């Protein structure tokens, strides 16, 4: 409270100084004016697009006698040449940086052998996956240095673009920034039948966007002292490639956009403002495609878009400045920044692609809960200092939900900085944003939603279990430094009449 009020006052004073400084050229005001004008970043028109986009390999898998698909992920240190001749220390899964794309089908049993060869504990969380709490890879499923953790579960959710990343308590931002992140794609019968671009690496491209700053050879992790959302890099990379271009040989290409940055919000569009079809969000396909020319993604969010190319052309996926937000947010938390993210180069002759289907899923096919089925509401006040006034505590269960029920959660950001909200295990329906029907980009399956300053978002969630009163799932702000500082809470799913157990106060097995 005090901190927030103090910061607001500081903000007001500084803004006044900036105005005064601009008019009078006063020394103090002048230096703030310099801070102000030097705080926004743009790589628009400056990106060279001279590196072919890296496409993470599909992870090999074996099938056990009982039909379980088995993957191996090794967390390791490495070294990556982002720039010619400069070796940057990085971390990766099965390689020097980032990780392979895991792929499985609805109905399959999967098992992942996660081996941690780092010299510190970490974890691997399956972001967006519906699975038992003990397999979730959150802070309670710590994988100690040198040890192996083998979660297994049955994939039981619609086709989607999910991802995986570490979730060690208090160190998630650093582990992700060092390069531990990858995609986990799910398919189902419907997605296999639909006439959408679906050849991985050809007309169906993973696009993991991260922002970086280099400090000599090293990745810089510093936070600007006026930024309160975390690390904001001065340039972007896609799948670990700086200045990337991708050659396209098909008339339509599907981009699976993932904001894998730790704090930056992107507003994606193309340099010529062309419209594209949004076909999927965090947890799966929309009921019908939505045409648009901008899509905003906060950290952790995904969007699947289909863009139509003309033969021989080049177009650039760009991140534009935010459309809303107060001037402080825009200036110091990246809202005024813009990036040329990825150039698409179309071949002179393109293979024809079918039109994007007008229906992608039945309404029921979204498998989202209805507000009318809600048996209880909960309120979450989002503050950097903690959700509902409490910083995260490993041994405290904040919310207990009953297996098989639907709830409506109200997320309120009454503070003065941007947050978002992510819930483990479930895909939720966004009911309204400040009382209004959500825009098309928020009408599909979601596990992460932005909650801008001053706004209220209501979501409906259904908890289908299995119950485990002793092992919590997390909900948190996905601005990773906020999460690390304690902007996270824990919930358990119990059977009717059951009570929450007592999770251990430390990360363990
Ligand atoms: Cu993507 Cu709790 O995380
Ligand atoms: Cu998650
Ligand atoms: Cu936050």
TrEMBL record:
Lineage of origin: Bacteria, Bacillati, Actinomycetota, Actinomycetes, Kitasatosporales
Family, per entry: Belongs to the multicopper oxidase family.
Gene3D superfamilies cross-referenced by the UniProt entry: Cupredoxins - blue copper proteins
Organism per entry: Streptomyces anulatus
Protein name in UniProt: Multicopper oxidase domain-containing protein
Tagged with keyword Ribonucleoprotein: no
Domain Plastocyanin-like: 76-190, 250-310, 383-495
Annotated region (Disordered), positions in chain: 353-372
GO molecular function, one term: copper ion binding
Record-annotated membrane-spanning stretches: 12-36
Keywords: Membrane, Metal-binding, Oxidoreductase, Transmembrane, Transmembrane helix
């Amino acid at each position: 409270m005090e901190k927030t009020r103090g910061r607001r006052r500081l903000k007001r004073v500084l803004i006044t100084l900036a105005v005064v400084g601009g008019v009078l050229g006063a020394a103090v005001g002048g230096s703030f004016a310099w801070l102000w004008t030097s705080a926004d970043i743009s790589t628009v028109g400056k990106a060279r697009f001279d590196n072919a986009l890296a496409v993470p390999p599909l992870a090999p898998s074996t099938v056990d006698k009982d039909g379980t698909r088995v993957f191996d992920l090794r967390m390791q240190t490495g070294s990556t040449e982002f720039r010619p001749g400069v070796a940057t220390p990085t971390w990766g899964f099965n390689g020097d940086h980032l990780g392979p794309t895991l792929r499985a089908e609805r109905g399959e049993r999967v098992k992942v052998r996660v081996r941690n060869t780092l010299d510190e504990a970490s974890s691997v969380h399956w972001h967006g996956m519906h699975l038992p709490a003990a397999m979730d890879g959150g802070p309670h499923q710590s994988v100690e240095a040198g040890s192996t953790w083998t979660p297994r579960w049955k994939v039981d959710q619609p086709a989607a673009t999910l991802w995986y990343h570490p979730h060690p308590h208090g160190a998630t931002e650093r582990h992700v920034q060092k390069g531990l992140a990858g995609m986990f794609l799910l398919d189902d019968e419907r997605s296999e039948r639909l006439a959408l671009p679906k050849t991985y690496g050809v007309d169906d491209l993973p696009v993991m966007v991260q922002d970086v700053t280099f400090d000599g050879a090293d990745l810089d992790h510093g936070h600007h002292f006026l930024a309160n959302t975390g690390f904001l890099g001065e340039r972007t990379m896609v799948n670990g490639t700086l200045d990337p271009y991708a050659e396209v040989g098909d008339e339509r290409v599907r981009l699976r956009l993932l904001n894998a940055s730790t704090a930056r919000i992107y507003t994606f569009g193309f340099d010529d403002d062309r419209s594209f079809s949004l076909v999927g969000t965090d947890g799966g396909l929309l009921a019908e495609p939505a045409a648009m020319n901008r899509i905003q993604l906060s950290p952790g969010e995904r969007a699947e878009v289909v863009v139509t190319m003309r033969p021989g052309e080049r177009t650039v996926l760009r991140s534009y400045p935010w459309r809303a937000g107060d001037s402080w947010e825009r200036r110091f938390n990246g809202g005024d920044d813009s990036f040329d993210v990825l150039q698409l180069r179309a071949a002179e002759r393109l293979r024809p692609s079918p039109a994007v289907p007008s229906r992608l899923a039945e309404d029921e096919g979204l498998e989202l809960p209805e507000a009318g089925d809600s048996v209880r509401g909960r309120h979450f006040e989002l503050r950097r200092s903690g959700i509902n006034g409490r910083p995260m505590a490993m041994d405290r269960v904040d919310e207990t939900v009953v297996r098989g029920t639907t709830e409506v959660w109200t997320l309120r950001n009454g503070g003065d900085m941007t947050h978002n909200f992510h819930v483990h295990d479930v895909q939720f329906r966004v009911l309204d944003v400040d009382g209004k029907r959500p825009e098309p980009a928020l009408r599909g399956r979601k596990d992460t939603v932005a909650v801008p300053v001053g706004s209220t978002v209501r979501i409906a969630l259904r908890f289908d279990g299995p119950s485990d009163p002793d092992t919590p799932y997390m909900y948190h702000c996905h601005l990773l430094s906020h999460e690390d500082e304690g902007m996270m809470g824990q919930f358990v799913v119990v059977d009717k009449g059951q009570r929450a157990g007592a999770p251990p106060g430390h990360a363990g097995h």
